Please model this.
Amino acid sequence: MPHFYAHKIDDIAYPAIENGFLVSFIAKNIKYDNDHLVLIKYGDSSFFFTQQNRDDKVLVKYNKHLKYNSLNAIKMALQAYMKLCNADVFFHNLNTKNHKNIASQYLLLPNQESITKLYKQSSNLSIEIGFGSGRHLLDLAQKNKDIVFLGIEIYNPAIAQVLNQIQLLNLKNLYIINADCRILFNILDSHSVDSIYLHFPVPWDKNPQKRVFSREFLKECERILKIGAFLELRSDSVEYFDYAIDISNSFNSFEVESSINSQARIISKYEARWQRQNKDIYEARFVLRNFVESIDNIESNFSFDHLDMQKILDSNDLKILGDSYFLHIKNIYKFNDGYVLFVLFGAFNAPSKIYLLINNNGSVEILGDIIKTKTNIQALQLIKKWSK
Ligand SMILES: C[S@@+](CC[C@H](N)C(=O)[O-])C[C@H]1O[C@@H](n2cnc3c(N)ncnc32)[C@H](O)[C@@H]1O
Model:
């Protein structure tokens, strides 16, 4: 993550502008004196730096909870801040020359508009989850120009690499979204997907509850797949494979075709690694045979009323649990014109994060993307407990 260390930095008058970056304010954690958030605005986007003051040094780093796509811009923003506060820097990793801006028309935001765009381009949609180096996904997209492909990945360097390949190969049918697939699936239409590839997911053999594959995940696949369409799992972990088959046994809508060491269409980077180690490769194809009752897409919208900051500050417990969802105000920061709340919310197995900026009059500004899944919306409604 881009950051710098300084022996000392000067206080500055907020807001301040340097090189097109607006440094709006600094907010201090109400519990930990040395922990701050610095809000940067650049064009239409906002992101934070975290600033931690220690005895003899200050660390300022990009705060990854508010995603911004251009690593170069983040580094330039840190340099601008460094200059504004006259930082006496002794270490940084802010050289920009080797970094590519990963903004691309093929990188979509995780929202309903993006999904609608995909449906409009073709009636055939195929998805790969966690595509890593992208070998398999790029090969599929090159060989099937009439199908639209969506790659869902959470690792930025992998995304940048595949966007670069999309450009080099002049592909017009492959799009990427940076999101947790378990959350993104919630906003796909029922029975709209032709195939889902889940190749070599992180096995989490010691922590199975962290796996992408779960009962809830398969339930969503059951909803979004077309009849005859499939979810394909390949894994080197026999524990993962058995666990997935076990879960699928409680569904009567899938027919499961499984095999060991079957020839892959294309060998992914991870598969190549396991082959070199002579590991067995397990494959399961979950083919949807019966339609299940269609669940309407979640149209419901929400907005925040004015929040009563005093009620929040007086509250003994800032965690609220619903049946299958939760809301947790994890950190509170204070600045001149109000407060910033760092909020975790959503499904227990796939939490989301946002910042809420509460002005002194109680009005609320949301910083960060909210994927409008049912559980996310239900979880965010819990905040009404602290309305004015
Ligand atoms: C072990 S790698 C496999 C990469 C690739 N499929 C292959 O076979 O070479 C797992 C990939 O899944 C991605 N990933 C992990 N959890 C994810 C999630 N919840 N949603 C989307 N991608 C995820 C990781 O960033 C990583 O790139």
Summary: The radius of gyration is 23 Å. Residues 110 and 177 are 6 Å apart (CA to CA).
